[in-house]
Amino acid sequence: MASHSANKEPLDPVRLNQLLCERVQKELKYQRLHTEYSVNPLQPVHTITRKPMSWHDNLEEPADEKFLNLIHHAALEPTKKYSEPQTESQEIGWNTKPLVPMDRTDCRFYFPRRKTEVTK
Questions:
Q1: Could you read off the pLDDT of 18-44 as tens digits, one per residue?
Q2: HEC states along the chain?
């Protein structure tokens, strides 16, 4: 292995510039600028308990609908959140509906347990 790397020729400046340009193009292609920030629904929110006799802590505040919808949406299972799987591991078991409807009279698809004299 060491002899293989020793045989490599040093890269010329033109090739180095080409590699750098290619890398920058790939980075710009996959880079996204996020300007809207919100609470991460996957991280637990630590709350501090209020003082029971404090009048300003016991005032009822209106619920923020956008925040509640965000929290409820984060709690949904992936099949209800997305129309298609987001990762390779989600592809397994994504479609849970059977391809053929269950028919208990069809002996090709239904194998009930049977008791015999030996298995009793």
A1: 999 999 999 999 988 888 888 787 887
A2: CHHHHHCCCCCCHHHHHHHHHHHHHHHHHHCCCCCCCCCCCCCCCCCCCCCCCCCCCCCCCCCCHHHHHHHHHHHCCHHHHCCCCCCCHHHCCCCCCCCCCCCCCCCCCCCCCCCCCCCC
